[in-house]
Amino acid sequence: MASSTQVAPELALEYVHSPLRVIHKLYDEHASETDDSSVNNFGKLAQEHFQTVFANSDSLKHIPVYDQAKVPNELKSGSLVRFRCMVQDPSYGEELHLTVARVLNTETGETQQKFSQFTDIEHTLSDGWEVDYGSAHNVFTEKEVAYCVSIPGQSAWTQLDQKDNLESAMEAMSLTGAADGSHGADVSVKYPIPGTAYSAALVKFYAPNTAPKVSSAIDVIGIYELGRNAKAQDSGNEDKLWPCIHAIYYSELQPQNLNSMLPELQINDYPSRHHMCLSHLTSVLGGDDLAAQYLLLHLLSKTVRVQDAKVGKLSLNLIGIPTSDQEQTAQTGFNLTNPASKWISDAISQLVPYNVSIPFDLKLLNKSTFLPSAEDGDLQAGALQLVQGTEVICDETCLSNGTLEERGVRNLHAVQTAIIDQQVTYLYPFQPIEMPTNLRFLVLSTGKSILHNDCDVYLSSSAKQFFKSMQGSPSAEQQLRPLDPMHTEQLRQYLECARHMEFSIPQPVSDLISNEYAQARRAAHKEGKKMMTQEELALTITVARLVSISKGEVELSLTSWNEAVELERCRRERNVQAKGSSN
Questions:
Q1: Distance of CA 358 to CAs 69, 363, 500, Å?
Q2: For residue 342, which of 270, 312, 336, 532 is within the disulfide window of CB 3.0 to 4.6 Å?
Q3: Mean pLDDT by 10-residue block, N- to C-terminus, for the chain (583 residues)?
Q4: Which of 317, 362, 369, 312 is nearest to 344 (CA)?
């Protein structure tokens, strides 16, 4: 079998209609052409073949998107589907499967080999044929099972085109209602954001693939079935049917590849994109250009682990967001009710692929679960079980007077740990496990946050008035002039490409920074002023790094360093003035 064979787009529908039939044909060809009938080898060949058939975006459009919320019970069992998802629980059991079966014709004694990977349904044999379970030629393999869910906080613009895919699927499959089936366990605790519609499936991974790590974002191409699960059988739910996807292949989702329709971003494009993005964010923040500059740097930040240190992160606290009117503060789950907070969150969700909001409402803090925890071998989700690169907006403007209970304290501590250490604790019965993460935290508050953040920025008086005017005025949201679709795509591409740039600090610049730091401390000591701390120096270096990549620079220049120093001076000066005026 030639795995590099090109298949015409119109023939790709056969792979969607009857992928198992295609795989069985490929196996028969492979078995007749070679003496090597290794199931692992053929599994790899089958994966490569399907990757070739669906090698571009046009061919991928033929594959219906797996979405329980929008198309429940409409996908035909045995059809090919695509599922962009997060691995919520990667250890949902292992299953032993008869992958290659020797079948025997009881009348003639003839034998054949049947391939049964990528399904839990046994072969339908013709009269006179039966599986020879005692044959030494039978091949048993294990498949890993993971519980996967829709990616929490996935922005609407990143989601696959449901309309085209559904029409394609219905035309191709002549869909009829699938057999009734339901989950065999309480799955309400399996999604990080309660009250949010989502899709879920057991995804089964075959050699040479293995189940991805917990909280990975993946794009799965596989065969959909309603089937049973070994873990459910162990718990007495053996009759329950589960939606399953047998992964033929999958890839790790890279946010920077979600704008693949645009030409590659060139270095000389960065200045214009930087200006466009800064101008847009300034409008979002009511004309506050200093706060907009720090918001841009925050959106460009990511955690880089250098030995034991975590550098590059920039959690940001925007101070001066007004509280919402009393009648608007009735909290509904994780939805933001403050118009000002929602305004900022909605604007950011147009630019980043994953965006989750956490209102710091007392009831929500006291009743919700922020950390994932395992009970009876089942990993239950927490609000902080999110994919790498998620923007997390914490809204403190809805925090009211009251008692923060023990769970609420634990939840706040979990958020603080994620901000400072970029770690989320997974609570397993015998040993809690600290899992590294890469989340950006934006905290919106009226006064200084109760959390410790890398950077605090007080909003200008005009920005505070801008947000205050939104309270009780739905029409205020029309004040922001929307970007046209092309400019929006360009900003998304700019943010993702800049964020993932390789960056370094040349030795001469590093030496200059060290000398300036030492001189500043000596001068402050001589004049009896507060000396610059190492924490303040580290923040200035982080700001300088982000200023550089915002302009497309791969290494820190003296110009960008001086810009960062000036930005920090302006920020500290404003903060001092704001604190003085509030006293």
A1: 23, 12, 26
A2: 336
A3: 51 84 87 60 85 85 79 74 95 83 85 85 78 84 91 89 42 33 59 91 86 94 85 62 91 77 88 96 96 98 84 96 66 84 95 96 95 90 97 95 95 97 93 94 97 97 94 56 80 94 93 93 87 92 97 95 97 91 67
A4: 317
